């Protein structure tokens, strides 16, 4: 998930990097350090605020994804449990297909095969999503497909 601060976001700002991560897993560790390192290099990076609120903020996030040149996805143990993170992955892939994003994936403190094969904690998360979204199984399938596609990337630029 991603913003320098949602309150400082303006429609004229173009982000160079969108940082997608599960806050509870990595906000105060890896993702936080990565964000600060990028900012020290004067790279305008969108990282979420800890207190994002509902649909209003998610639309700002989706716009930041579209405007960013690079999207970094940090996969961690509980990444797949976040519907926001999964929605962001779908949006990132949509933008990549339009030819305007470079995607870098990082697998943090988890075996990459868990992400690719969607087993262990990822299988558990998807079981929960299937229970919660019984009426929207197409949404869950989009998340699964997007995760599989992105998990197979190690930094990829679409050559449209």
UniProtKB/TrEMBL annotation:
Signal peptide: none
Catalytic activity as recorded in UniProt: NAD(+) + H2O = ADP-D-ribose + nicotinamide + H(+)
Record-linked InterPro entries: TIR_dom, Toll_tir_struct_dom_sf
Coiled coil regions, renumbered to chain: none
Keyword Hydrolase carried by entry: yes
Enzyme Commission (EC) number: 3.2.2.6
Highest taxon, organism lineage: Eukaryota
Residue ranges of domain TIR in the record: 13-160
Protein name in the entry: ADP-ribosyl cyclase/cyclic ADP-ribose hydrolase
Source organism (scientific name): Ziziphus jujuba
Gene: LOC132803977
């Amino acid at each position: 998930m991603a913003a320098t601060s949602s309150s400082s976001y303006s429609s004229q700002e173009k982000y160079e990097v969108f940082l997608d991560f599960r806050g509870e897993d990595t906000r105060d560790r890896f993702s936080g350090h990565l964000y600060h390192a990028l900012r020290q290099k004067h790279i305008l990076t969108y990282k979420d605020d800890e207190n994002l609120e509902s649909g209003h903020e998610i639309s700002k996030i989706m716009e930041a994804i579209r405007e960013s040149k690079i999207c970094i996805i940090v996969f961690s143990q509980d990444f797949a449990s976040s519907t926001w993170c999964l929605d962001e992955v779908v949006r990132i892939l949509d933008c990549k297909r339009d030819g305007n994003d470079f995607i870098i994936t990082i697998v943090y403190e988890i075996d990459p095969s868990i992400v690719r094969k969607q087993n262990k904690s990822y299988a558990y998360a998807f079981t929960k999503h299937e229970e919660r979204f019984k009426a929207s199984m197409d949404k869950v399938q989009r998340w699964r497909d997007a995760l599989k596609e992105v998990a197979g990337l190690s930094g990829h630029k679409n050559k449209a």
